Amino acid sequence: MALLSARRVVPCPAALGRAIASALMLVLAVGLASHVHASRIKDIAAVEGIRPNQLSGYGIVVGLQGTGDGQQAIFTIQSILNMLRRRGVVVTVDPRQVRVKNAAAVLVTASLPPFARSGDRIDVQVSSLGDAKSLRGGTLIATPLLGGDSAVYAVAQGSVSLGGGFSVAASGASETIGHPTSGTIPEGALVEREVPVELGSDGRLRFSLHLPDVSTAANMARTINASMPMPWVATAIDPKTVELRSVEPGPIPAMALLAQVETLEVPTDRRARIVINERTGTVIMGSDVRIAPVAIAHGTLQIEIQTQYGVSQPGPFSEGETVVVPESQIVANEGRKNSLAVLETGVTLGKLVAGLNTLGVTPQDLIAVLQAIQAAGALEGEIEMM
Known about the structure:
This protein has three domains: 2-35 and 274-385, no CATH class; 38-49 and 198-268, Hypothetical Protein Ta0175, Chain: A, domain 2 (Alpha-Beta Complex), CATH 3.90.1070; 53-191, no CATH class. Helices cover 20% and strands 40% of the residues. The protein is built from seven helices and 24 strands. It has helices spanning 14-28, 41-44, 74-86, 214-227, 254-261, 349-358, 363-375, and strands spanning 2-10, 37-40, 45-47, 53-62, 103-112, 121-128, 139-146, 152-159, 166-170, 173-177, 182-191, 204-209, 232-238, 241-246, 265-268, 273-277, 282-285, 290-291, 294-298, 301-312, 323-334, 339-343, 379-380, 382-385. The protein has a six-stranded antiparallel beta barrel. Strands 3-12-14-13 form a four-stranded antiparallel β-sheet. A three-stranded antiparallel β-sheet has the order 1-20-21, with no helix packed on it. Helix 1 (14-28) runs antiparallel to helix 6. The two termini are 53 Å apart.
């Protein structure tokens, strides 16, 4: 019997962990100087009533080079026949006998921005509904875009742009780059109906915070009251809503007030939060994250896998076959230089990362350490898993 040997070694990733943690320290060091931030109101809140509206519609993309929907997509063929009938072309054939590979059924979506006027142009997104292979080179025919009330607010039409995506297939092999079954039409829709926006008609304006917070809402109301003269009064209704109203009855000059209020700077406060994406090993920690007194130990582990391949020869004049038999040996060595780090009361993010850096942890190890600290009740913040 002949022996063939192969050896695989999985090294301890401590050096890589130290490099990643050091880079994380360098990036986050800028934000550790102060816990108090000031932001403009227009950057942290939106005015209620000023919002976009979602539009959608069903259309047909034509002019494809044989990459459209197949015969299984009956709705595509039926849509084409209905369109021809509306154009005065009478077609009396069985839809199941029609094969149109140069067309594809698509769903058209768009976002109607606030204060859009009739005649404005907006971007649209086009996505295939059937089994089309690619929308490259296609043209969307006139497609009404409807809102939530089933009214037509825009009409889309134009050439579809894939942004570099393509799909190629030949001789049993295929290659696909990007998403060839979805694309965009820049300024491809024409606004036909306006959405009325009435601000201040009831004598008040409401601001909605992007990130609800009690302290930020109270600071915002206090800042507005200190900067705006009577008869305007700002009140924090809840952690997300701040209301500006007039003590006098009647509508208020909304645009003039917004021009003064939106540039005011408000001290903002944020929750201490750690965002973890376990799939990619990404860990984002805010500068307000602190931990209580805790000791952390991290042990290294090196796994060595040795594989030997034995060749089994059959006996003379037998009908057996030569077989390669793998024989694996797994040796796990736990590092003897274990470290123990003691973090004191109120440790900030910088000291936390520095302490973990001395342990040589990788991002995956860092996730496990943070979860263990939270389970121990020593983490002053919340962990959000993506």
